[in-house]
Amino acid sequence: MQKTIALVAHDHKKSDLIDWATSHKAKLEKHRLVATGTTGGLVEKALNLPVFKYKSGPLGGDQQIGALISEGGLDALVFFWDPLNPAPHDPDVKALLRLCSVWNIPVACNRASADLMFGVESLCDDDYQRDMPNY
What we know:
- The protein contains six helices and five strands.
- By secondary structure, the protein is an alpha/beta fold.
- It has one domain: Methylglyoxal synthase-like domain (Rossmann fold).
- The protein has a five-stranded parallel beta sheet with strand order 3-2-1-4-5, with helices on both faces.
- The radius of gyration is 14 Å and the shape is globular.
């Protein structure tokens, strides 16, 4: 069954999301992909898959995806947000994450949670190695 999956990433996390999406292309290509503007264009180009693009996050894209959630049109959100760089649209980001909680939408906010959500490996598998950020 085809699901609708939203892909969103803040500027400093876009390359991480593209790397993750590339490694999960076989799973993602079976579903309808939506994204905020810039991220959607990058994902579309990297995966050579169609992506419905909403506005850029700061221009209302996060709110558009939030509306999709409230209308029952989103099945999962992969949102690589950057907790160390405040965004001018931070209230929109928090509202989007809040709606995921309200409507029980699975949300992954980093590569480890996205890997687990998409079943690459189980957290309990001895082979699973979480990438450690290097600040």
